[in-house]
Amino acid sequence: MSAPLDKPQVVSHSQKSLNYSLFDSKWIPCSAKFVCLGSSCRGTGLMQIYELQHGDIKLVKETEKTKPIKCGTFGASSLQQRHLATGDFDGNLHVWNLEAPDVPVYSVKAHKEIVNAVDGVGGLGIGDGAPEIVTGSRDGTVKVWDPRQKDTPVANMEPVEGETKRDCWTVAFGHAFNDQDRCVCAGYDNGDIKLFDLRNMSVRWEKNIKNGVCSVEFDRKDIQMNKLVATSLEGKFHVFDMRTEHPTKGFASVSEKAHKSTVWQVRHLPQNRDIFMTAGGAGNLHLWKYEYPAKRSEMDGDGEERGVAGTLNLLQNVTLSTQPISSLDWSPDKQGLCVCSSFDQCVRVLIVTKLNRV
Fold it and tell me: Which are the contacts of 150, defined by CB distance < 8 A and separation ≥ 6?
């Protein structure tokens, strides 16, 4: 048995109480700054930039917007520009230059209702092909946008005529390993997970995990699909091995009941795709490592290849808050540095130690 001190530790480095509802927090790439997004008590949107200075969190810039801001991503922007794409409660997608955040550099009425989730690819040197932003909304649609193209999405995935519209809670890009291939995964309030192939404009795979899907993320966006984690209500999450798809059984998966409450988010460590953190409704974080099986695929009785799921190893867990941790983001530059926000209106900068030893 290894001594507990050999395990990674989750250390709260600094925290700050804010006077508004926090929905998302994101590291600004190549900096010691992060941005917080949310809603003020009078129903406007807030965008604040903070910087780590001598172990303390200092406010650098604050901008107020007409509508509360739900989510954000830097994923479609270059490292030089570092433009932030945000989705708001009125269905708008905006792209902001944080140096001059008064007027968006790109703006579109993306959805009829709130934009619940946004993700980007093709920027930050991650993923081949065009810079694109995907939005998922309460109106049941998932849309892909190219900021170089005004007003119309490059892809629109919506329920067919007569089909019930389900609230889309989460979206993620993946499989962007060359200029042609790209997938979007979306999770819905009824437990549906849908994998859209953007190259063929088709639904490649779908699965229902019986509980609302709060967060989906591929372990890497810019490789052939490897693993996908989906978290849900009631404390469960699933890890799918996306390398081998069986014609009838789909992808192999392993599931874990990690928390006693909703698993709000999953985020993979940028420096190691087999380590990820889940954020829970009871104010806790769990750090996991995925262990691959001896063989990732095998032949079934019908001569079809099927995937073999690995196992999950809990490295560490910590309780930070009495309220749900609603957002988490790893620093892309410093291994183990992350920022998280919770419904107690607090933003925390954390350091996870010993990640290079697990």
Answer: 108
Please state the length of the chain. Answer: 358
Among the listed ranges 124-138, 211-225, 234-248, which one has the minimum average pLDDT value? 124-138
Q: Whose CA is closest to 284, among 234, 313, 253, 326? A: 326
Over the stretch 175-216, which tens digit does the pLDDT of each residue have? 999 989 999 999 999 999 999 999 999 999 999 999 999 999
Q: Is the alpha carbon torsion for 343, 344, 346, 350 positive or negative?
A: negative
- CB atoms < 10 A from the CB of 21, how many? 15
Strand-pairing partners, residue 38, are: 22, 46
Please state whether the predicted TM-score (pTM) of the whole model is above 0.85: yes
Question: For residues 302 and 312, what is the distance between their CA atoms, to the nearest angstrom?
Answer: 29
For residue 238, which of 174, 309, 287 has the smallest C-alpha distance? 309
8 A C-beta contact, residue 74 and residue 120: yes
CA–CA dist 111, 327 (Å, integer): 22
The H or E element that residue 277 is part of is strand 272-280
Spatial separation of the C-alpha atoms in residues 172 and 217, rounded to whole Å: 6
Q: Output the CA torsion sign for 96, 101, 107, 109.
A: positive
DSSP state, residue 308: -
Q: Say whether pLDDT at 1 is over 50.
A: no
Dump pLDDT digits (tens) for 156-171: 999 888 888 999 999 9
